[in-house]
Amino acid sequence: MSLTIDSTVTLSSGRSIPRLGYGVYQARSQECEDGVKEAFKVGYRLVDSAQAYKNEHIVGRAIVQLQSISRSDVFLTTKYMPSHTPHPSSEVYEIMLKSLKKIDKSNTEKEKPYIDLMLIHAPFGGEQGRNNNWRALVRAQEEGWVRDIGVSNFNVHHLRSLPSPKPTVNQIELHPFCQQREIVKYCQENNITIQAYSPLIRADKERLANPILVDIAKKHSKEVTQVLIRWSLQKGYIPLPKSVTPSRIKSNSDVYDFQLDEDDMRVLDGLDEGSNGACTWNPIDQP
Predict the structure, then answer these.
(1) What is the residue range of the signal peptide feature (predicted)?
(2) What CATH number did the domain enclosing 37 receive?
(3) Which residue of 22, 109, 114, 143 lies most exposed, with the fewest beta carbons within 10 A?
């Protein structure tokens, strides 16, 4: 599988999305701003933020400082955090607009601010709430200030019950210990691109020390974290590793000079622990 840091995937909309993203979960203040700038310095072009992360404005501030990189070469993702109580689509729409003003601070005569990908962060609110949220995203896309729309943490029954159009993306927790195979299968069959959050297992020391991971890393003279990211890439996912340490940001992108073989992938696939393998908030069982 020939991949580089410039590799992209074509979404169902026809637009391209980078194959590797930079996550900013829990990154605040100066460390977030510096992290985004460092990520773009080493070649990342996708930043994944969210309303719940409370750093959209920091991401926006960092992006406008990337003077050598045009806005069209940046892929900005954020997420609307829904309520457990359904809200009218009009209210959801207004909340989404606040994200636009925070995360894209560019505003020229040639191009107005826009969000490349807006996701619904979780399947909260029941079917009515999800439908209202989705209609707000569809409206934003029709108006052009959101390019692509998708979801996060949606299970198969959530995806099936959404109004049209189908989401272009479903962002879920994915790593060898949490493979969510039923959701992955449905998305692949329905041309829904899969993004993998927590691809580094939230730096869980016990899991990072797993003998299988350690042996494969030694075999390829790579770090365990690099093996995890490479596994995700070879599965066809878009991993979103997060770090604010410059050396880690760089090493997380140094995954294109080796390839996991069939035995490596088979053994890693065998680490799946099902729902018990989730190491973070994973609300896929919402009614």
Answers:
(1) none
(2) 3.20.20.100
(3) 109
| Alpha carbons 120 and 79: distance in angstroms, whole number | 6
Q: What is the pLDDT of residues 259-270, one digit of tens each?
A: 999 999 999 999
Instruction: State the residue range of the domain holding 267.
Output: 15-273
Residue 262 CB-density burial (10 A; 0-12 exposed, 13-18 middle, 19+ buried): exposed
pLDDT tens digits for range 9-38: 999 999 999 999 999 998 988 999 999 999
When divided into structural domains, the chain yields a total of 1
Q: How far apart are the first and last CA of the chain?
A: 39
The position carrying tokens 């909260």 is 124
Residue 281 covered by a domain: no
How many residues does the structure list for the chain? 287
Single out the catalytic residue among 22, 53, 80, 93: 53
Residue 286 lies in a domain: no
CA dihedral over 226, 227, 228, 229, signed as positive or negative: positive
| Residues sharing a CB contact under 8 Å with residue 158, sequence separation 6 or more, in sequence order | 123, 130, 151, 284, 286
Active-site hit among 121, 175, 197, 237: 121
Q: Does 4 fall in a domain?
A: no
Assess whether 44 carries a catalytic annotation.
no
Contacts 24+ apart (CB under 8 A), 64-70: 64/105, 64/106, 65/37, 66/37, 66/40, 69/40, 69/45
